[in-house]
Amino acid sequence: MGKEAVGFIGLGNMGAHMARNLLEVGFKVTVFNRTRERAETLAASGATLAESPRGAVVPGGIVITMLANDLAVQSAALGENGFVDALGKDGLHISMSTVSPETSRKLAREHARRGSHFLAAPVFGRPEAAAARQLWICQSGAAVGKQRAKSVLNTLGQGVHDFGEDPGAASVVKLSGNFLILSAVEALAEALALAQKNGVDRTTLAGFLGKTIFSCAVYKNYGRILADRVFEPPGLALELGMKDMRLVRDTAEAVQVPMPIADLLHARLLSGLANGRGHLDWTAIELSTAGDAGIDTNR
Amino acid sequence: MGKEAVGFIGLGNMGAHMARNLLEVGFKVTVFNRTRERAETLAASGATLAESPRGAVVPGGIVITMLANDLAVQSAALGENGFVDALGKDGLHISMSTVSPETSRKLAREHARRGSHFLAAPVFGRPEAAAARQLWICQSGAAVGKQRAKSVLNTLGQGVHDFGEDPGAASVVKLSGNFLILSAVEALAEALALAQKNGVDRTTLAGFLGKTIFSCAVYKNYGRILADRVFEPPGLALELGMKDMRLVRDTAEAVQVPMPIADLLHARLLSGLANGRGHLDWTAIELSTAGDAGIDTNR
Amino acid sequence: MGKEAVGFIGLGNMGAHMARNLLEVGFKVTVFNRTRERAETLAASGATLAESPRGAVVPGGIVITMLANDLAVQSAALGENGFVDALGKDGLHISMSTVSPETSRKLAREHARRGSHFLAAPVFGRPEAAAARQLWICQSGAAVGKQRAKSVLNTLGQGVHDFGEDPGAASVVKLSGNFLILSAVEALAEALALAQKNGVDRTTLAGFLGKTIFSCAVYKNYGRILADRVFEPPGLALELGMKDMRLVRDTAEAVQVPMPIADLLHARLLSGLANGRGHLDWTAIELSTAGDAGIDTNR
Amino acid sequence: MGKEAVGFIGLGNMGAHMARNLLEVGFKVTVFNRTRERAETLAASGATLAESPRGAVVPGGIVITMLANDLAVQSAALGENGFVDALGKDGLHISMSTVSPETSRKLAREHARRGSHFLAAPVFGRPEAAAARQLWICQSGAAVGKQRAKSVLNTLGQGVHDFGEDPGAASVVKLSGNFLILSAVEALAEALALAQKNGVDRTTLAGFLGKTIFSCAVYKNYGRILADRVFEPPGLALELGMKDMRLVRDTAEAVQVPMPIADLLHARLLSGLANGRGHLDWTAIELSTAGDAGIDTNR
């Protein structure tokens, strides 16, 4: 028996790798991307091209969204030529990009009204991890969607972690994770400034931490990036990181949870934007931390 | 050839394990502790008891300090019945507790005046790690001390990481590490509050993080402690954690490095003290984070 | 010659006093309020009752809005039975409540399309000041609106301060002012906690400050409120103060200005909401400040 | 009957005016200043010159200190050639500069042991206010000292405000006041950045605030300074302002009061020092606030 047909909407730095991985293991993939060039590259590898989000789905089929923000997902799903009505009864929408829990919950309600299913399944990992099928996936939503999504998600990542039935839960986990990553970045930036002005070598310190008490991906990778200030090309652009911290703050406000570190990170990102650093990697918040300490970051 | 004689001053939660490990591999250990009971336990295992810091050293020998704070180290070394003068020419002082870089630099100067050597060699790890010889050790100071300290340090930990000749450098590394650990704790506390008020299970989230993007000791251990709020018995008491953050802030001020997260952590610890939580584990700063979010932490 | 007819929409703690003042000096006032009871009280004083925002205006007339938030103003102006289309050519909308600069700019554009005018004229002052015609008014917008609004604004306040032609400018001034007021409140709360735990009497300190370096309304009034913790009845409820700080943060984000004190105030208000204090005066953020210091505020 | 003899130690920007005022109303003033030139200027106006702090006092007399920091006061009082022993029984030390409550309490104890008295009487006001006898004075200590100090304090200021018997209380009040002033500065700086990036004129906004809700000295004066960025010559140099905020933080830590705004102010000052602005007025923390917002402050 052949694999299912899958619509894939959003072929950015992450999505293009993910769609290609589905193609390679035998899924029939129909792709849509607002910028057509990116879709054409995948067509050369066997993907079918759709002219609209609606064109990427078949009744009762599966569709994955991997888009830049909440608005883009809502527009692809519910806007003009959106796919939700075309997907119809028994269809499954797997939402894999970072959106607010509110958007996830709203989409789940819209699908439920039409007899289709919604599964929130955001991912952790940089583009290299997406290419290598090493993404970490967290999911939440109704059981029927999880069952059907299994083969797709197992193709894309190295494990699926379940967070229950609330479609917003996985979004909260994803936002929490991104918040924790950027928190670690700011803390590392402060520690490295303290070290540098005490004459301690930044690279040696970052290396030590990544080999000992913090021997995990985030500290190893970001420690190196921060020690040497390698902010180009961006893994995640600072202006996109801002979007994530805004979602964290909005979600925190909605449930009345003061998060002082989130406020600090937001201020750092905002300062980065105000000083023309929106195109750099989001770890470039380090330049504000170092600047406050009078460190010359051009050397 | 037998192993060297070593004086060991300070037999707290960490020091007692370390001194015992030295005894077990054959070092001749003379111990001193202000509270005599703790020393007597080690005497039963073969240690010699000294009546004062001075009594724990022999001319030209090795002495290790593992004491609560800067004042205690300075007093043991330079106060009444302090060991520095008795240690004399060619002696070696290995300072393994958390002190300020200024104290380390000052002690190095005092030793240099007398022809003895000073090595800063603070450690990372909870008491269990000390017992299991799994400490991570960072050292800095003159080469001659490092050479001579090798067999001692290799006995106590799972690796020695070098930070050059400045005797203050290893202290900066130690303070940076403790700062990063408590930063991770506060960030986790905020993320867990966000999750909890969104209906996401705290333990599941902490487990997910420790298995994926943050699969390292700090996040695994503290994630579990924070998710379940296990603040007793303390690994490091909040009131001692305060001492460390104070050293971080003082060091940062001395070299003019603003550290907003350090200020936040200090405020959390201070709030913990003001609310009668000084005896709990330092991760109990979570109670302030949760309290700000209106979470009932008694349930 | 008689005075102009004026529509007045929004009869809350502030608006009811303002409408009454207009009536008393001879304006013909038609009022609308969502809760009809408040309008009826004014009808007894000579006001005409309208059944909708649209019913409160006459073609080419003047209409004042004094409503709870941006949405309420936009809805009254542009929603179902909104007044903008009925106001028509040469009409004047004076917007006196606290809204975002974006809402002011949008309303100005909507009026311009229809040949009517928009004047932003938010006010400073508590309800007592509104009753006593002691409001401070800041205005911005096109000159024609300012000219026509003069007699109305002079009736309501003790002076009109002009901020140019950008209809958003006066909103920015109003938000800045509210931000500065709550900043002073938090700073006072911290200083009073410091004083109290040093044995200095709170009331004496607040009195001293209000008589010397800070002899102005904000410090005199709020100093007294804070020293004695008189948070009921609220002058401005904490949950409404939250709305203002949210507008400050949104406006700051839009123009990329990090405002760390605004973030702190937002966190304090959010903590107040999370702990069931939304109905108290917004100065009740002091309870968080005091709580962090372990001060028993029930005594 | 002639006026009392008074020793005056510390002839800085403030002290020189104060000593001159005492001379002018007829006190016999003996002055000491570490930099002799400043003392000689006063000698030309009738002051007697002393060669040491001790030389500035007579047994049982009055001595005033107006020095840069805690160390300077302690040294003048208790160091080599210090005045406390020479002052002796029934003498009175009026301490008018900004010191920690701990220093005040310690000095009071030292005086009590010798039968002399200590009165804490720090002042509010810039040098112009000192010259014009417009200082605001807050005092605390034993009643006998207050009685005797009356004529001196009435000569120097426009009113004496009493804070009870604890010699540390007036120091707490002084520190609280300076903290509140710098808090207002930072809040103003944030509001002015928000306004500027919204196209609102800084000077107009500052003027409006100083005439309406904040019509008091601090907002009037600092509003103008901040709007126009007039940071030279300094009224209070940033590096001295840092000393005050350090005292605030130390005092807050001693009594376990978290003060997040004080932490922010400390970070701003530290950033100023790190960026070479220690010689500017302490309000130059605005340059960090504006820099974070990407505002070009060189224009």
Descriptive overview:
Four copies of one chain form a homotetramer. With 299 residues, the first copy, chain A, is α/β, with parallel strands linked by helices. Chain A folds into two domains: 5-165, 3-Layer(aba) Sandwich (Rossmann fold), CATH 3.40.50; 172-292, N-(1-d-carboxylethyl)-l-norvaline Dehydrogenase, domain 2. Helices cover 51% and strands 13% of the residues of chain A. Chain A is built from 13 helices and nine strands. In chain A, strands 1, 2, 3, 4, 5, 6, 7, 8 and 9 form a nine-stranded mixed β-sheet that branches. In chain A, β1, α1 (15-24) and β2 form a beta-alpha-beta unit. In chain A, α11 packs antiparallel against α12. The radius of gyration of chain A is 20 Å and the shape is elongated. The mean pLDDT of chain A is 96. Chains A and B meet through α8, α9, α10, α11 and α12 of A and α8, α9, α10, α11 and α12 of B.
Summarize the structure.
The structure is a homotetramer of 299-residue chains. By secondary structure, the first copy, chain A, is an alpha/beta fold.
Largest interface: A-B, 62 and 62 residues
| Main sheet overview of chain A | 9 strands, mixed
Number of strands of chain A: 9
Global Rg of chain A = 20 Å
CATH architecture of the largest domain in chain A: 3-Layer(aba) Sandwich
N/C terminus separation of chain A = 60 Å
* Element-level helix/strand string of chain A: EHEHEEHHEHEEHEHEHHHHHH
Helix-strand makeup class of chain A: alpha/beta
CATH top level label of the largest domain in chain A: Alpha Beta
**Tally of contiguous helical segments of chain A:** 13
